[in-house]
Design the sequence.
């Protein structure tokens, strides 16, 4: 239970988040579920302060040692924050994950941060989210 998942509130990725936690052996991990997942932590000012305050409370209350930072493609919160489509979402998500990982590991010494992206696949048979994939 000394783990925490930070992920997006989009219900379409909820099952993928749960599958990831089960795969990692932490189905009962704490969860911080907000629009965009790591997104508020990339914003300066009050958004980041509030998010860090929530994380601090969970980390201290549950002696969290590992944080799973989970972004996903086709994220409406990201699209709104960035003013629409037309950017390389995967590249941008991975860049933000690495920045937030550094922020969290600096803010919470002793906590390891692991990053994941839930990919969106479209092909001839349809479109769906795939299993979460690790980001180095
Ligand atoms: Zn989202």
Sequence:
């Amino acid at each position: 239970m000394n783990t925490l998942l930070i992920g997006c509130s989009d219900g379409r990725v909820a099952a993928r988040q749960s599958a990831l936690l089960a795969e990692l052996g932490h189905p009962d991990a704490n969860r911080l579920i907000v629009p965009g997942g790591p997104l508020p932590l990339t914003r300066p000012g009050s958004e980041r302060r509030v998010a860090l305050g929530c994380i601090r409370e969970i980390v201290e209350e549950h002696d969290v040692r590992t944080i799973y930072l989970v972004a996903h493609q086709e994220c409406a919160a990201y699209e709104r924050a960035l003013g629409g489509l037309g950017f390389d979402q995967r590249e941008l998500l991975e860049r933000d994950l690495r920045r937030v990982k550094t922020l969290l590991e600096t803010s919470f010494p002793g906590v390891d941060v692991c990053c994941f992206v839930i990919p969106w696949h479209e092909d001839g048979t349809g479109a769906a989210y795939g299993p979460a994939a690790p980001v180095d």
About this structure: The chain has a mean pLDDT of 93. The two ends are 24 Å apart (CA to CA).
